[in-house]
Design goal:
9 strands; single chain; alpha+beta; three-stranded antiparallel beta sheet
């Protein structure tokens, strides 16, 4: 528990202060891999899965890591990672919430009921970073955001991390098919603009 709290502090500081660049992206991804392992070891599987999904957005090669030295927690993360990758190959089983879902008879798209505004990081302000993060998520049948996949990233990884962290707090009225809640893919855009 103490180690996870320290790791969280390192992650927050790094995300807040890291400037643009691939090295910072890889470092953030590596920290997130370790957070996923720590959360899994503490029995926080849902948090571990979210951290893993974030990690692979910043460090796609994380799927190739040997996590077996981390014992059961490492094995559980690898199992989730292989399931997650398999699910990405079966996208047809989850409806797209864009125009297509609204076109299908009996399907209603999810509607946001709670949004969380992402923060602007110190580094992003210093480097005058503006732009849009486009992320595809699954809005599950309970209206929670899951499985984030960055489609268009920002130049500062900490800013992307801040946006993804905020998105985890969003809640939706779930999509429905013939009145029953269903999971759907949903694409969100988070815009960052500096006030001049």
């Amino acid at each position: 528990e103490k180690a996870l709290k320290r790791l969280e502090a390192v992650l927050e500081d790094y995300a807040r202060l890291a400037g643009p660049g691939a090295a910072n992206e890889r470092n953030l991804g590596t920290i997130l891999v370790h957070r996923a392992i720590a959360e899994q070891a503490l029995g926080r599987a849902e948090d571990a899965r979210w951290s893993w999904d974030l990690a692979v957005n910043f460090l796609p090669m994380a799927h190739t890591f040997d996590l077996s030295p981390f014992g059961e927690a490492g094995r559980a993360i690898l199992e989730y990672a292989s399931t997650s990758a398999t699910e990405k190959g079966r996208r047809g089983e989850i409806l797209e919430s864009g125009g297509c879902a609204n076109c299908l008879p009996g399907v209603t798209a999810p509607k946001p009921t709670k949004t969380v505004r992402p923060r602007y990081t110190v580094a992003a302000r210093q480097f005058l970073v503006e732009g849009a993060l486009v992320v595809r998520v699954v809005v599950d049948a309970e209206g929670r955001v899951r499985s984030p996949e960055v489609i268009e990233k920002l130049s500062t990884p900490g800013l992307s991390y801040a946006a993804l962290t905020a998105l985890r707090g969003w809640r939706f009225e779930p999509a429905t098919l013939d009145g029953k809640p269903i999971p759907v893919y949903y694409t969100l855009t988070v815009n960052y603009r500096l006030h001049k």
